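Our preliminary data section would be incomplete without showing what the modeling component actually yields. Below, a chain of 825 amino acids is followed by its predicted structure, encoded as tokens that our downstream tools consume directly.
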Amino acid sequence: MAKPAKKKGPKGKKARAKAKLDKVWGEHVDEEARQQSKYRLGKSKHRVQTTDVDPLAKTRRGVASSFDHFLHRKQQLYEQKRLINNGYGARERSLSIVDTDGSSSDESMGEDPSDNSLNHFLQRISGPQSSSEMTVSNNGEDESSNNDETQSESEESLSGGEGSIAAESSGEDDSVDERDMQDALQSHAAGRDPYDKHFNEPFDRANEAIGKKSRRISTASMLSSSIDMQATGSLIEILENVESIEKKRSKTRKAWEALSLGPYQHVRQVLTRNWAGVNHLKDNKLSVPFSPLQLALYPAISSYADVMISSVTRRNRNDVANLLSLHIINHVLTSRSRVHRHNLRIKELTKGSGETGQVIEDDDDDENKWRDQGYTRPKVLVLLPTRGTCHEFVKRITASLGDSAIVDNEERFDAEYGPLDPIDDDDSTGNARRNVVLRQKGPEWNELFGDDANSDDDFKIGLALTPHVAKSADKKKKKVDSGSGASGVKVKLFADFFHSDIILASPIGLKMAISGGDEDDDDEEEADTNADFLSSIEICFVSSSDVMLMQNWDHVNGVLESLNQQPKNIADIDFSRVRNYFLEGKGANWRQLIVTSQFSDPHILSTFRRHALSIEGQLKMRRKTSVEDASVCDVMVRVKQVFQRVPCISVSEAGSNRLRYFSESILPKLTRLKQKHTLIYIPSYFDFVAVRNMMLKREMDFVSVTEYARVSEVSRGRARFLQGRKQFMLYTGRAHYFMRHSIKGIRHLVFFGLPEHAAFYPSVVNMLNDGMSETSTEDDDATRLPLSCLSLYTKFDAHQLERIVGASHTERMIKGDKSSFLFCS
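Predicted structure:
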């Protein structure tokens, strides 16, 4: 048979390019292959060649085939048992049917097939569901177990003579061996990139009613039993499957690894090759190089859900900071790579259009495929309390990039944000005494406010990342093709905000820049539009919110309210590249808010509840304080500690009710007994102003130590209080936080409100009777009355009270009939 004549193509480079795009000449593209190529990870162009562009493509196909064989074998056994048991039809209709090719029937509804495979696997190894648990219908919606008809039908199909499938399926679940679990884990690892899954979601998701139901997730077998996790939204379904495995199996870590392995595989290679050295894990044989805490957090963080971590300690803060820096840098590099690749594609299509200059339409039917950015370039906002913490965070970013980082303006950054030069003092005796005082203030205080710590809280800096930059010997940087192997990442510090990817600032520094209060901004018109760089923030990270709580939390609320607002200056915006939800003013629903703190506080919780609007749900992690870990156990002075509950109806009236109770019940007794050497600890500065004005009206004899007082004024007041010349001392919580004064001459202590930091309670109580031997007691009765300690609280101070007395005591002290409680040390 004669071969058909080969069709000749058009002559000319431009003509061939145009004809190839129009499918008139060139390699034929199969429609089915073209549709499948849309789901290629990390690519936006269609694959027209049969070669493996993705180096992990062969591995993923091998993993998928092994998992398909596993599902096929299980499906055959399932069909055999279904034929034997005639009454299994009802149960079969309530579950999703899994085909032999490993895809679920829910795939046609737009769900990720890898997620269905994982859910099917988790349900199989977790055993049969009880009647009180939720069942998954074939339409993907959760059916409540309190439905009487569904519940009775499930009980009939799972119990009795014909419903003996429960026992048999339990035996079948026990036969799932280690190899099958690994196949399922690897199958989930070949899932979709979380970046594409979140930012390329249908726009209609923002109009759906996001469920506010909260669900506690148990992590007792992997983390401490004191860790409490609560999830909302789509996270509930994912984490409930892992919780069911935790209750029935001993393979909890592998189940969490299944949730973390998929997102981790899509992390940029420049980050993964340095991650092991940055994370400092002792066990190097883990399939996912995460600590238990990181495994519990990464599924929610990588899915762009709002996360609040209120259990950060000195022991685990590096794990949390490393994980968040990995997520932030991976997000920025992925976004920049997408934009860079689309720019090249648009440029290529423009060149192929000829002299007309019109862009040729691509083969893809998706009209929104070029929408890959927001109004402005900044994507991440990181709020930090001091310059020292900002310096530490930037160094963590450069360490994550490793040798690939090309840092500009590093010397200037180290000079302005790095540790301060040590104080040179020739007096060795004075240096020794100063070192003793600094050690008494604690390691946390020295890290924030020590001699070498940069504690300036007014700063803002832009950071720009440029991937695919060549590293040459003469330090010249130039962009290279993404396929080059000797490419690095250029990190430019002190970049302009509108040309930055990450903005690092303190709340007060950024607030002044937004409101036009900066000294450098003299143009009033520019001050009106200088908040446009916050219009396209996709990740907002509020680090060390407990420190910002002591600065001014109103600045944090003001900055968060300025995020994702419509820009005022639209001259330089390419609206054809802006995502749809930004155009509709719903950027906050795709923004991820991450807040870290050492403890839970009503102000922080209120801010998180108001600004956490992500469509992916929320995750809250906090540490419950047991009685053994309560700070009241650290009191070393023998004193009776009385906790008095103040009656209060609403939060707005808590301050006024506490002030009224103090002025009518406590203060008259103190003046009648002439009780000298009394220190009144006031956590809030607003309450301090109210108490001070009330005592001034009554012409009472007192001194005050605040964070705004001069050093000479504080020294003079402390001396007069120690000598008994002043009867009362008003001591604010912020003064103790920033200065950590050691007050001498205290014999009676009154907590006007409970301190936010639990460690402050024992530190202040242990000051009782300190330095009294130096006080002359010939003319006064300073030692006539025993030591005393009184603490006032309301039912809205449950968080502070729990950290001081423990969770079990807190419930009784808040809800009990009695209002006075006594603790003896």
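The two ends are 104 Å apart (CA to CA). The longest helix spans residues 317-352. Preliminary results of this kind motivate Aim 1 of the renewal.
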